[in-house]
Inverse folding.
């Protein structure tokens, strides 16, 4: 079981939108050095929605090869087409990913039965651990706790990224499946609380810029050190909040650019961070000593 701080890695791009492979390699090395427990390759933060299939697979391969087994890599292979999700997951398996992250099929709004059958089909097709990813704010479909419990009975299902931001919902999920599969937070602001409630880790945006602190937050929370974890999370809250001043990954990519870890490239329909937020984000970065 993968536990702890799992970075949802941003994909560096040049100003023209081409993938910046050198900085991608450097980001992987940064996370290995700073104690990140695992990497999600080509999730939402990695701009899965703006990469074509060839690029998607190439980024997965580069991260897996650069990581070289030092920490696990979870490949983002979700799609709103079951056949496409199967193809991406098959490629992730071939490339050597440790698990895959499968977002609930977006836009076409499947039924709860459709969600079950979607994951059942992927599990039958590919022998690779599946981490479910429920984020109704982006997908317009909510995988309900009873459905999660049903899907958790599928052998290949090993975890769920619970990204509703609702701790009552998270507790329901933990009570139903926490003894069978890993439950991860998908919301940095409540990650420590979710882990203290019985969760297993955090798939994090904040870890892109503060990997060492997010790794420590998860370690404290997993150890049940609630007072210390809460104090650290309070310290981090300004960063958690500012990184969602616009749609992810717009703020975190701009922050990484300001830190000198990537150029400012981002692909349409995403745009660079609006001017009205830049001073506030710079101030938070400065408060952590991150701007060079």
């Amino acid at each position: 079981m993968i536990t702890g701080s799992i970075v949802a890695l941003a994909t560096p791009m040049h100003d023209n939108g081409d993938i910046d492979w050198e900085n991608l390699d450097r980001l992987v090395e940064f996370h290995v050095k700073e104690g990140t427990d695992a990497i999600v390759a080509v999730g939402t933060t990695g701009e899965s929605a703006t990469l074509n299939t060839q690029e998607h697979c190439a980024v997965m391969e580069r991260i897996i090869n650069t990581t070289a087994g030092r920490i696990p890599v979870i490949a983002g292979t979700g799609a709103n087409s079951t056949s496409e999700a199967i193809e991406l997951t098959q490629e992730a398996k071939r490339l050597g990913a440790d698990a895959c992250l499968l977002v609930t099929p977006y836009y076409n709004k499947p039924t709860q039965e459709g969600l079950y059958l979607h994951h059942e089909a992927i599990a039958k097709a590919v022998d690779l651990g599946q981490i479910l990813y429920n984020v109704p704010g982006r997908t317009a479909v909510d995988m309900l706790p009873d459905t999660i419990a049903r899907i958790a009975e599928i052998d290949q299902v090993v975890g769920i990224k619970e990204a509703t931001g609702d701790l009552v919902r998270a507790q329901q999920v933990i009570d139903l499946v926490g003894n069978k599969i890993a439950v991860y937070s998908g919301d940095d602001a409540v990650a420590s609380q979710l882990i203290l409630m019985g969760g297993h880790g955090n798939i994090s945006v904040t870890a892109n810029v503060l990997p060492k602190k997010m790794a420590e937050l998860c370690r404290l929370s997993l150890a049940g050190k609630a007072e210390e974890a809460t104090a650290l999370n309070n310290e981090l809250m300004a960063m958690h909040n500012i990184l969602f001043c616009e749609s992810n990954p717009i703020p975190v990519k701009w922050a990484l650019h300001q830190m000198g870890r990537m150029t400012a490239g981002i692909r349409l329909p995403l745009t660079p961070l609006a001017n009205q937020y830049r001073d506030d984000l710079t101030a938070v970065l400065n408060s952590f000593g991150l701007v060079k």
Observations:
- Residues 4-225 form a domain with the TIM Barrel fold (CATH 3.20.20.70).
- The longest strand covers residues 157-162.
